Amino acid sequence: MSQQNFKLPLSCQTKGFLRRWIGLRSKAGVLFILMLLLILALPLSTLAQTPSNDPVEIGRQLYGENCAVCHGIDGQGRVGAQLAKDWPSLRPDRVIASVIANGIPGSAMPAWSQARGGPLRDDQIEAIVAYILTWESGGPRVLPPTPTPVLRPPLTPPPDVQGDPNRGATLYDQNCAVCHGSNLEGRIGATLAKNWPSIRPDQSIRNVIANGIQGSAMPAWSRAKGGPLSEAEINDLVAFVLTQAKAAPPSLPTPTPAFQPSWLSGWGGVLLTIVLFVLIVSGALIYQARTKKY
Questions:
Q1: Distance (Å, whole) CA 227 – CA 220
Q2: Rounded-to-integer distance, Cα 137 and Cα 260, Å
């Protein structure tokens, strides 16, 4: 009886040990599988975060950031020429690269190369060329992303000016920031964050946006001139630009120069006065003596 009582606890301990051992093995197996999946997923995540070295993909991004606003997201033209076409040239890549790098003088196509004052490196220009030529070769029409609007605080409309500057801010990011900079600081276009010295600056800005500047890189944006913007949208843009104008620095009075005493205001002046007095008296005495003599 005592022997059976002794064996029974031993059997229970053995079974409990086996259960714990099997449980640990199961947990270890689950952890091992999770770690294995994590290790296998690391190369995929690293690959997803690694920038693409494909020139066409790089060009697609650059086209969306710099070219789509004028030439259209699909290359069909907007205020700039159509690019999704066949290029009648033995070396269309060289033709396109030259136009991008050097621009077309007297037209709305500015020079984009850093050598000509633009923002793009030579390799970036070549990537854009590679992307544009995919349209000619009938490659997959993968369109570039649209510009991301800049988050700005709510804007108060300027007095006596039509248009909503908050809608104008979105329109600016979509149409103007490429050339004039995201903060109106200027890029390949003029700086707009400035004081506008005009009796009616709103009219001056509206006229330039609507009609462009002939012979410059500023095209006409109004629909009446073949552009994409309505009159209301142009008014919104004008209102936004005027909210970003920098106030002229206050005119300070010209300081009066401090009085700088000369040597005549001190003992030098006294001495000069005495010398002149002596000379005058001496001259008078000499003249009187000569008069009596004759």
A1: 6
A2: 81
Q: How far is CA 255 from CA 81, 92, 248, 259, 291, in A?
A: 56, 64, 20, 12, 58
Convert 138-167 to b/e letters by CB count within 10 Å (16 or more is b).
eeeeeebeebeeeebeebebbeebebbbbb
Q: What is the pTM of this model?
A: 0.65
Which tokens is 255 given? Answer: 């300081």
Distance CA 294, CA 279 (A): 23
**Neighbouring-strand partners of residue 222:** 229
Q: What are phi and psi of 177, to 5 degrees?
A: -60, -30
Residue 42 pLDDT level (bands cut at 50, 70, 90): very low
**For 67-90, what is the mean pLDDT?**
91
User: SS3 of 267, please?
Assistant: helix
Query: Is residue 188 a contact partner of residue 110, using CB atoms and an 8 Å limit?
Result: yes
CA distance 175 to 172: 5
Q: How many CA atoms lie within 13 A of 256 on its CB side?
A: 3
